TrEMBL record:
Protein name (Swiss-Prot/TrEMBL): DUF445 domain-containing protein
A Pfam family assignment: DUF445
Domain of life (superkingdom): Bacteria
Biological source species: Streptomyces luteolifulvus
Assigned GO CC terms: plasma membrane
Membrane-spanning segments: 50-66
InterPro entries found in the cross-reference section: DUF445 (IPR007383)
Signal peptide coordinates: none
Keywords, sorted A to Z: Membrane, Transmembrane, Transmembrane helix
Length: 450
């Protein structure tokens, strides 16, 4: 197996942990992919490396020339220059070692505590996750930052703008339509039907009906119903006199003469017509009073009589169990859904106009009333604190697991490309500072020695 094959196998082995810990391949590629911007940054790193190396070679040449001048009797100045150049070389080499040790082993030697990034990548990721969890995902930090933002007042000011309220209304309408479209009618109908049936079975309805009926009778609300019924009955009798008399004659014995049956039919019809007319025109008609007493007694029985309540409950069960009632409950959802979808699609519908008006009103109140702002801020803070305290481990593990899924070689190259140029200034500064320190030490030594 050639060296290239070895490298490919090692790279594959390094990328396997990303899949084993559940890191998406896209997340790993995002770190290991070398973009055009990274290439440009890497070229900048190379230029800075050449600059730092050139400065090192410069002080080395200066050191050689200064030593030669000192040995040829050029004077004390040569010693100062040589000391500064020598210290500059030491500083440059020391900082070169420190910078190089971050990314790889200097000169390929297995020196301990070198190649820190590729060898300690996973530990660095875990430490970074712990750092974020302790310093950014703590309850006090989250509350302090959110309180400083003032979400309540900002959200209120934003919602108070009509264009923003229109946008929110449109998004809410789209979400509502999407939710209603996703829901299957059969599932919702089954849930609604089961909920209504269960609620009706769990609650006795007779006492409630009795109280309602008692109040209606006490307020005289039933009288309008009685007026309507007797009026319609009287009008029907006026228009269908033949049908009434035919019905009476049809129920008469066969041995009675026809003219007698007709006289009886006419008499019955006239009495019915008179009765309905009197009941319609006389508020104090005895039949009305009898009906009032009946309804009052029935309302009382619904509340206190065990037999009446039992019969009502049995009738309720029979009614709810009928297929027609269940179909009616199921069709109610279809009608409601269609109505809501139509209202959500129509920009001028009452639903959308009311939602928009409510959002504008809410925004104005949130922007102006500190009490409402405080409530909103408290809700947001509570939700955020719950999330970070409940899922802090998952959030921090996302950082550590993502870092663990990165390829060490490519991660090192990418980090070096992004921060390597600044690190080369360390080498340059080390050369300059080392030279100054060396000059200072040589000066002090000569002064003390002198």
């Amino acid at each position: 197996m050639c060296a290239g094959d070895h490298e490919r196998v090692e790279r594959m082995e390094r990328t396997e942990p990303a899949e084993s810990v559940g890191i998406p391949a896209a997340a790993a590629r995002a770190m290991t992919a070398f973009t055009a911007a990274d290439e440009e940054k890497q070229r900048g790193v190379r230029r800075m490396k050449l600059t730092a190396l050139g400065l090192l070679l410069f002080v080395a040449v200066v050191y050689v020339l200064a030593e030669w001048a000192s040995n040829t009797g050029a004077g004390p100045w040569a010693g100062y220059v040589a000391a500064a150049a020598e210290a500059g070389m030491v500083g440059a080499m020391a900082d070169w070692f420190a910078v190089t040790a971050l990314f790889r082993r200097p000169l390929g030697l297995p020196i301990p505590h070198t190649a820190i990034i590729p060898t300690k990548k996973d530990q660095l990721g875990a430490s970074l996750g712990e750092f974020v969890g302790e310093n950014f995902l703590s309850e006090d930090v989250v509350r302090q930052r959110l309180r400083a933002v003032g979400i309540g007042s900002r959200l209120g000011a934003w919602l108070a703008v009509p264009d923003h309220a229109d946008r929110v209304t449109s998004e809410l309408s789209a979400a509502l339509r999407g939710a209603l479209t996703v829901l299957r009618d059969s599932d919702v109908q089954a849930v609604v039907g089961e909920a209504i049936t269960r609620r009706a079975d769990a609650q006795e309805i007779a006492p409630g009906i009795g109280k309602m009926l008692e109040k209606i009778v006490a307020d005289g609300g039933h009288k309008r119903v009685v007026d309507l019924i007797v009026t319609r009955a009287h009008d029907w009798l006026v228009l269908h006199d033949d049908q009434v008399m035919d019905a009476v004659q049809g129920g008469a014995p066969g041995w009675t003469p026809k003219f007698v049956d007709r006289k009886v039919g006419e008499r019955v019809y006239k009495e019915l017509l008179r009765f309905t007319a009197e009941m319609r025109d006389m508020p104090s008609h005895p039949a009305r009073g009898a009906l009032d007493r009946f309804l009052t007694d029935f309302a009382s029985d619904l509340q206190s009589d065990t037999d009446t309540r039992t019969r009502v409950e049995r009738l309720k069960g029979e009614v709810l169990g009928r297929g027609e009632v269940q179909d009616l409950i199921a069709s109610a959802w279809t009608a409601v859904r269609s109505m809501i979808v139509s209202a959500a699609e129509d920009e001028r519908s009452e639903l959308r106009l009311r939602v928009r008006a409510s959002l504008l009103s809410l925004g104005a109140r949130m922007a102006a009333e500190p009490k409402i702002q405080g409530k909103v801020d408290s809700w947001v803070e509570g939700a955020a604190v719950y999330v970070v305290t409940t899922y802090r481990k998952e959030i921090t593990s996302l950082i550590s697991d993502t870092v663990a899924g990165w390829d060490a070689e490519h991660t090192t190259r990418k980090i070096e490309a992004n921060i390597g140029r600044d690190l080369q200034f360390i080498r340059i500064n080390g050369t300059v500072v080392g030279s100054l320190v060396g000059l200072l030490i040589h000066t002090v030594s000569r002064a003390v020695g002198g």
